[in-house]
Design goal:
Strand order of the largest sheet: 1-6
Number of strands: 6
Number of domains: 1
Strand content: 5-15%
Number of helices: 9
Shape: globular
Largest sheet: 2 strands, antiparallel
Structural class: mainly alpha
Oligomer: single chain
Length: about 270
C-alpha cells in the first residue's frame, strides 16, 4: 500500500485513537497555544518512539518485548513501531499533565462567591505549571493509567485492537512486567524535562496572568477520564472482571481528590496557594 492508503487505513482501523488525539490538540491549543502544544506533543511522541525502538532491541527502558507485525499491511508503522503508539503516549501524557495541573495550580478568589457551587478559578503562572509537584504527579498519573491500559492492550487479540505485541517474560501485573512501568517513569520524565525548560523559554501564552484556565484544564481531565473509562469498558467487555475491578479501585482515591478540588474542598496538602 502507498503511504496515503496506509494513513487512511490507520484512521479507519483506530478511530478512537484519533478522537483522543483531536481532543488533546483542541485542549492543548486552548490552554497553551499551538506553539507550546506542538512542542509538548512532539517531545512526548519522539521520546516514546525512541524508547520503544530502544527497548525492542536492547530491553531498555521497558524490558524485553516485541511487536508482532500482525498489522503491518493494515496501518502505519515507524520502523517496527505502530504509528499509534507514540501518538497515544503524547495525548496520555498531556491528559495526565492536565489532571496534575487541576490539583496543583493556584486559584484566585471567585468572582461568583455568592453561588452555592463554584469550582476553583485556576490561574496559570509559569512557576506552578512547571513545578516539581506537577512534574512528579504528571508522571505518576501517566503510569497509573498505563496500569489500566497495558494489561487490556496485552489482550488485544480478544477485542478490536489485535495482538500488537508480546512480552518475552510475562510479568506479575496481569502479564505486564514491572519494568514496563519503570520505563514509563523514564519516558514521562524525559518528555517533561524537555518541555518544561521550553515552556519557561518561550514568550508567555496569549492570556492574562490572572485569567482562569479552569474550564480548559477540566477538558484535559475529561480526556484523561475518557481514556480511562474506554479502557475499563473494554476490560469488562472481554470478561476480565478482576482486572477491571482493580482499575476501579486504583482510581477511587484519585477521583476523590479530584472531586474535592472541583468542589473547592481540597485536603490540606492540595490546598490552593493564596
Amino acid at each position: 500500500m502507498s503511504f496515503f492508503e496506509l494513513l487512511i487505513n490507520t484512521l479507519l482501523l483506530r478511530p478512537y485513537v484519533f478522537v483522543f488525539l483531536a481532543a488533546s490538540l483542541f485542549c492543548a491549543h486552548r490552554l497553551v497555544g499551538w506553539r507550546r502544544s506542538t512542542w509538548f506533543l512532539g517531545f512526548a511522541s519522539l521520546t516514546s518512539f525512541l524508547c520503544e525502538y530502544a527497548s525492542t532491541r536492547t530491553g531498555i527502558p521497558f524490558g524485553w518485548y516485541n511487536y508482532t507485525g500482525s498489522t503491518v499491511n493494515q496501518e502505519l508503522y515507524l520502523s517496527n513501531i505502530p504509528f499509534i503508539v507514540p501518538i497515544s503516549f503524547s495525548f496520555l501524557l498531556f491528559a495526565s499533565y492536565c489532571l496534575a495541573l487541576f490539583l496543583f495550580l493556584p486559584s484566585s478568589p471567585s468572582q461568583n462567591s455568592e453561588r452555592a457551587f463554584r469550582w476553583p478559578n485556576l490561574v496559570f503562572p509559569i512557576e506552578a505549571r512547571t513545578s516539581w509537584a506537577v512534574f512528579g504527579l504528571t508522571v505518576l498519573f501517566a503510569i497509573l493509567i498505563d496500569m489500566v491500559i497495558d494489561p487490556v492492550a496485552l489482550r488485544g487479540d480478544r477485542w478490536f485492537l489485535g495482538e500488537l505485541y508480546r512480552y518475552w517474560d510475562p510479568g506479575i501485573h496481569f502479564g505486564v512486567p514491572i519494568t514496563n512501568y519503570l520505563g514509563w517513569i523514564v519516558m514521562g520524565s524525559i518528555s517533561l524535562a524537555l518541555y518544561f525548560p521550553m515552556d519557561r523559554h518561550l514568550p508567555s501564552p496569549s492570556l492574562r496572568p490572572d485569567r482562569s484556565v479552569t474550564a480548559t484544564v477540566l477538558l484535559g481531565c475529561g480526556l484523561y477520564y475518557g481514556v480511562l473509562l474506554f479502557n475499563l469498558a473494554v476490560t469488562f467487555w472481554i470478561g476480565e472482571l478482576l482486572l477491571g475491578m482493580t482499575g476501579l479501585l486504583l482510581y477511587l482515591p484519585i477521583t476523590a481528590l479530584f472531586l474535592l478540588r472541583l468542589f473547592n474542598r481540597p485536603p490540606i496538602l492540595l490546598a490552593p496557594h493564596p
